[in-house]
Amino acid sequence: MDVEVSRGSGSPPIPLTVVRARREYAPKQVLPTELKHPRRYRLRQARYVVLAQDIDRWAEDAAAAGRTLSVLDVGCGWGPLLCQLEAEPHFANLRVSGADVVDKVVHRRDLYGEFFVGDLTGGYPEIASDRYDVVVCEQVLEHLGTLDVAIATLARIVRPGGVLAIGVPIFFPPLHLARRHLVPLLAHLLPQVQVGTHEQAFSLWSFRRLLRAHPELSIARTRGFRIISGGLLRRLENYAWWWRFNRRLGELVPALCIEVQILLVKSPVTG
Hints:
Blueprint lengths: L1 E4 L8 E4 L28 H19 L4 E6 L5 H7 L7 E7 L14 E3 L14 E7 L9 H10 E12 L5 H15 L14 H9 L4 E9 L14 H13 L6 E8 L5
Parallel strand pairs: 3-4, 3-6, 4-5, 6-7
Antiparallel strand pairs: 1-2, 7-9, 8-9
Helix pairs in contact: 1-2
């Protein structure tokens, strides 16, 4: 699917290709958090690896159009996406910015062109509308009490024709309802039950329905990550075939995975 990011009335658009075809993704470097027990094909970080390589493809497209690709990573944490982007061949053609509730970046803080400290539910009024070619929001929405302003803000700050990449953990229905309603009740009754910081719980279908409530966004691709990982299978994460097997499963049956990543395209300006 080809989309074009408008740069204003006097500038040609940047063509971005949301790849639907099967591609060979592989990690370029081990994340700093994995150095004590490194595994070459760490499935828990696959979402950043795959997205970084898509963004690199878009950066190449932007370079061909004579432009720099602007990326905002909302909820960037310590910098796992930046870590993977840095290893890509077209990193020099990216302008990467970050945003989070606190500045806790430990990986190459100097590489962020801008950094915004604030809560996504506050709408980030300091960020102009239609500002970024690519907006990423990975593993954030499940921690928020309300979602309307958060998703509306993400849609607002991505440029017309640009790509919004959102990732969340998911459950196969009706387990997401149990996680949302029953687990907090059990935690209230049984203090030893730990619920963590998640305030939302999604299935693939409930999350896609939530996104479809924003008509300016069109779902271009859905991919899953991790059906089974860790535990006794942890050592398999040193082998490329296990990585490829999991990536293929994630493409074929995303609803059965632990995490999902959805790429959305914002409607271009017409007229």
